Amino acid sequence: MLPKRTCAALAVLAVTAGTLVGAGVANAGQNHGGGDRGPRPAAFERTATYPVFQNRPAGEDAAAQTVAEISATSEDGRTLVYTDAAAKRIGFLDISDAARPKGLGTLSLAALGDAEDEPTSVSVVGPYVLVVVNTSASHTRPSGRLDVISLRTRERVARHDLGGQPDSIAISKDKRYAAVAIENERDEEAAPAGGEEGGLPQAPAGFVRIIDLKDPSPARWTTRAVPLTRADGSALPALVAAGITEPTDPEPEYVSVNSRGQLAVTLQENNGVVLIDLASGRLTKAFGAGTVSLDGIDTAEDGVVDQSGSLTGVPREPDALGWIDDRYLATANEGDWKGGTRGWTVFDSRTGMVAWDAGNTYEHIAARHGLLDDGRSENKGTEPEGLAIAAYGGKRYAFVGSERGNFVAVYDVSRPTRPVFEQVLPTTNGPEGLLPVPSRGLLAVSSEEDDAGAGVRASVSLFRLGGGAPAFPSLVSADGPTGAPIGWGALGALSAVPGRPDELYTVTDAAYSTTRILTVDTGGGPRRGPAVITRELTVKDATGEPADYDAEGIHARPQGGFWLAVEGRTGAGNQLVRLDRNGVTRQVVPLPSDVAAGLGAQGFEGVTATTDRRGHEIVWTALQRPSSTDPAGVVRLGRYDVRAGTWSWYGYRLSTTATAGDWIGLSEITVSGGRLALVERDKLNGPAARVKRIHTVPLPEGPAPEGTLPVLPKTLAHDVLPALRATKGWTQEKLEGLTVAGNGHVYAVTDNDGLDDSTGETVFLDLGRARKVLGGH
Question: What is the enclosing helix (H) or strand (E) of 63?
Answer without folding.
Answer: none
